[in-house]
Amino acid sequence: AQTVTQSQPEMSVQEAETVTLSCTYDTSENNYYLFWYKQPPSRQMILVIRQEAYKQQNATENRFSVNFQKAAKSFSLKISDSQLGDTAMYFCAFMKHAAGNTGKLIFGQGTTLQVKP
Amino acid sequence: NAGVTQTPKFQVLKTGQSMTLQCAQDMNHNSMYWYRQDPGMGLRLIYYSASEGTTDKGEVPNGYNVSRLNKREFSLRLESAAPSQTSVYFCASSEADSGSYEQYFGPGTRLTVT
Hints:
The structure holds 2 protein chains of 2 kinds. Chain A is mostly beta strands. Chain A is 0% helix and 51% strand. Chain A has no helices and 12 strands. The mean pLDDT of chain A is 93. Chain B is mainly beta. Helix content of chain B is 0%, strand content 51%. Chain B contains no helices and 11 strands. The model of chain B has no long low-confidence stretch (mean pLDDT 93). The interface between A and B is medium-sized, with 25 and 26 residues.
């Protein structure tokens, strides 16, 4: 069975600075996807960034980038130039890739990020 | 384009009462999911439906039933609510074979069982 671990329950960062959120996972699969979702106080889940395990290049989306270390089973999220609107809970998630994939996500426990002015 | 909608947004039940959480999506997605979110535990999959007419158990199915009414709608039923089912419930949908695998989430239902 796959597991996802986020070892930082809470983090804070000053506005305009950079912060990195950690995520590790355990799987015996070779083909899978990893995601970071953001949940602001509104409770809405929003996809931040996605990484395919077969791609060596780290995914980037504007101020958000990942450091994907497949051998170490590590998938950290870096937020550059932090903004007040980045205040949210962030979830790391794993999805196995297989024929007839059902798209089931396995989530980590979440990290609450507070961006301070 | 409403995306994924859920009703109700809030609900309080007494132990033993039943209720159905409704979910609908207008993105023509094949796959739909029900999750529950509890503090310190992230989101856990209750049931999912890979396509119309099929449903399967997820990680925490006990105490719940689901119905995939048609391609748009996927409901979650609590037959006899228990305090342990106090949680926030999310419905999601995706086109699992599209290549993006992004799941789109509804706004959630906060359920309290007293």
